[in-house]
Amino acid sequence: MLRIAVPNKGSLSxxxxxxxxxxxxxxxxxxxxxxxxxPGNDVEFFYLRPRDIAIYVASGQLDIGLTGRDLLIDSGxxxxxxxxxxxxxxxFRFATKPGxxxxxxxxxxxxxxxTSYEGIVAKHLxxxxxxxxxxxxxxxxxxxIQLGVAQVIAxxxxxxxxxxxxxxxxxxxxIMKSEAVVIRRTGADGEEPKVQQFLRRLQGVLVxxxxxxxxxxxxxxxLEKAVALTPGLESPTVSPLHNEGWxxxxxMVPAKEAQRIMDDLYDIGARAILTTAIHACRL
Length: 283
Ligand SMILES: Nc1ncnc2c1ncn2[C@@H]1O[C@H](COP(=O)(O)OP(=O)(O)OP(=O)(O)O)[C@@H](O)[C@H]1O
Ligand SMILES: O=P(O)(O)OC[C@H]1O[C@H](OP(=O)(O)OP(=O)(O)O)[C@H](O)[C@@H]1O
Ligand SMILES: [Mg+2]
Hints:
Layout: E1 2-7, H1 10-22, E2 35-38, E3 43-48, H2 53-59, E4 64-68, H3 69-75, E5 79-84, E6 90-96, E7 112-115, H4 118-127, E8 133-136, H5 143-146, E9 152-157, H6 161-165, E10 169-178, E11 180-185, H7 193-210, E12 211-219, H8 223-229, E13 237-240, E14 246-254, H9 258-267, E15 271-277
Parallel strand pairs: 1-3, 1-4, 7-8, 7-9
Antiparallel strand pairs: 2-3, 4-11, 5-11, 6-9, 6-10, 12-14, 12-15, 13-14
Helix pairs in contact: 3-4
The structure holds adenosine-5'-triphosphate, 1-O-pyrophosphono-5-O-phosphono-alpha-D-ribofuranose and magnesium ion.
């Protein structure tokens, strides 16, 4: 049975469960459940604190984990990213009160930096030869400056609202970009069929979320131009229509570009242009 760690709380928890559900896996009904078995798929899910997931996976007791890239790196655990999942996207950045330090990292010399991600911050400072102290806080680190615990913070930034509300601004370049990822123990057997099947299912969800199916009719003379607009993944399906001189075309297109492609197809004479959602797929 494949054993998988899933975040039980925080920003990752809801979207992770939703993605697993879309991939056809049973998910827990109540937030207090710590473990469930999905017998139909031969999978056991363990609901763990997001911060602990890389440690469990590195220990070899669990085959796979869903966590944040930043949490994986911060843990220093012997685990590696094998698939990016596209949700819980954020950057990890230094921030401070306006005027405290400039954009030059060297300005952090001698300062105290508060963070919940001590591993990432200490390594980043050491890699750049910066001599600053790091104070570990559990959360709500934006308040650390107002309360005099630190002059600088390093934290997750998504919209920037938390920083603005605390009267802070980002300084310097982002330390890293994060999103939810699938991890496994470093060097674990990558060809394991159950793991491969799990990854294919999640990849299917990612594709279903980012592509739509597009169908349209066009004149044979316009086919090459139309196909250039909708090349599909392998190549589009082209079928004859009852009316001579017309064909029906079917291809997957990126959902974000669907409206622009429909306009362009219309302009070259395509008609009956439809898009439909993809619910699941295997590429
Ligand atoms: N506002 C946010 N937008 C996107 N991702 C976020 C946000 N806040 C945290 N994350 C991501 O969530 C993961 C951290 O999860 P964790 O449960 O520890 O914190 P949290 O979501 O802040 O919840 P908590 O309320 O327990 O602090 C990290 O990968 C982090 O990048
Ligand atoms: O840029 P924003 O959109 O404001 O998002 C970033 C904020 O979200 C998270 O905080 P959370 O609410 O989880 O509280 P925490 O600091 O206690 O983790 C993170 O730690 C930042 O504070
Ligand atoms: Mg948080």
